[in-house]
From TrEMBL:
It comes from the Bacteria. GO terms for molecular function: dioxygenase activity. Gene3D superfamilies: q2cbj1_9rhob like domain (2.60.120.620). InterPro entries: 2OG-Fe_dioxygenase. This is Protein BsmA.
Amino acid sequence: MIVLNKAVGNSLRNYKYANVSGSDFSLTGHFDEFVRLTQSWETMEPDPYYGQAEAGARFRRYSDFEYHPVTQALTQLEHRPYVQSLANNRYVGGMERHFQDFSEEVIASPVIRSLIALDFEVYKSVLPVHMHHDQWQCQIHQIRIEIKPGKQVDITPEGIHCDGYPFSGVHFWGKRNVKGAESRLYAADGTPLAAVTYENILDTTFFLDREMKHYVTPASTLDPKRPAFRQIIAISFSKPGTRYDIVC
């Protein structure tokens, strides 16, 4: 249903990342489901660990799944906290952060299911062939940032960081009245690699997260008299007990 009309395998293999425009995707059918999924960003619970309450708020869903690329079966795992080390996240590293799980209604969306399958197809371009048919774990973060009129927030208060996933796909899902929020990628040693400001739904960055770092610059309201929002969905894959496990 969602098709990527651009080859990104060479970029991922050679540079460990690929930035893709929303115009490089096509959507076939299920347009009502696309709208329904977009509305789900408006029903998320607040992220209590975000801070910055005087300037804005972050809303978030997070769940872990088992994913089989052959059957595209997706099984939601039990609720678990999201934990990162201080080395990877100096802002809230070492804490057990509990976020709202995905509801069956949201995760049953054919749009999300199609996006997961698409992301794994991209990931396959850097995986050994014998692992293409294995079962993997899939981690999904759905995030919305809201900014109060005339205010500025840190999109990533943890600064330049790594989340520890072998592979991640960050898909932009719209914004309103936002100034700033440039997405940046860095080599592991901090050397800048790329920068892009998402403008259109499905503007996307695929990257080998464990092997680099990323950051989003602060954002403010373009019109200081009106509120603003920005939203993304991030899909990652890992394989516990192997060299493709998450590095916390």
